[in-house]
Amino acid sequence: MKPSIKRRAPCGTILAAVCAAALAAGCATMGTADRDALTDGLRSENALMKGRITLLQRENSVLKDETSVRRKEAGEQRSRIERLEADIQALKTQFARDIELRETRTKALEQQNEVLKKESSGKIQELTRLNGEIQKTLESELKRLNEEIAKNSAAWNGERESMKNEGARKELAFSKEIDTLRKESSQKDEEIAAGKTARAEQDARIKKLTQDLESGNDAVGRLEKLVAEMKGRLKDMEPIRGDGAKPEK
């Protein structure tokens, strides 16, 4: 919808007409002084009116600019509305297509469901029949196994009792063997302890003998040194022979 714009009448034309009418009337009824005063008043009024005309022209230019902007905005709004209407129509068309496609798929699924129901009914009957046959076979096999277990129960019980007795016998033999091994181990531990004591005593004796031997070696060394000193003294005490020869050793 286009905005309505009121057009103003040209102010200059109206002012000129008013001034002319007033001047004509004044000239007819007034004198020279009055006419001069009237002329000055009209000139002042004319100057004031010119200022108002300039202001009105500016306002008119602003209104023209606003009108141009509003027309442009209105055109853009119309274009936007047209685009939105086109989008809405496209969405409606797509929605109608989706509804139609969904209905088609729903019908196809319903048909498949009916087919599956029929097939499932047949399969259920077949499975029920097979289950009955399997149940009968299992019952027959279970009955046969129970009879076989009953027949072999006595033999199994005897064998189990024999195994228990054999286990008890072996356990007793193992217990005796373990006791014997424990006793032997205890004896060996005692022997090892006695051997350690004897070895410690022997080590002490060897150490003492070694110390005694070292002391004897020291005494022998001292004796040898003393003997050597005494021999030296004896040599010094023997008289010298006339021929200057030393006595034979």
What is the secondary structure topology, with strand pairs?
Blueprint: H1 11-29, H2 32-237
Helix pairs in contact: 1-2
Percent helix among the residues? over 70%
Radius of gyration: 75 Å
Low-confidence blocks of residues: 1-12, 240-249
Count of extended strands: 0
Number of helices: 2
Shape: flat
Biggest sheet layout? none
Structural category is mainly alpha
Terminal CA distance reads 169 Å
Percent in strands: under 5%
What is the H/E string? Answer: HH
The chain-level mean pLDDT equals 75
**How many separate domains make up the residues?**
1
Features:
mainly alpha, 0% strand, 2 helices, 249 residues
Explain what this protein looks like in three dimensions.
- The protein is an all-alpha fold and 249 residues long.
- It is built from 2 helices and no strands.
- The longest helix is centred in the middle third of the chain and has 206 residues, at 32-237.
- The protein has helices spanning 11-29, 32-237.
- The protein has one domain.
Provide a brief overview of the structure.
This protein is an all-alpha fold and 249 residues long. Helix content is 90%, strand content 0%.
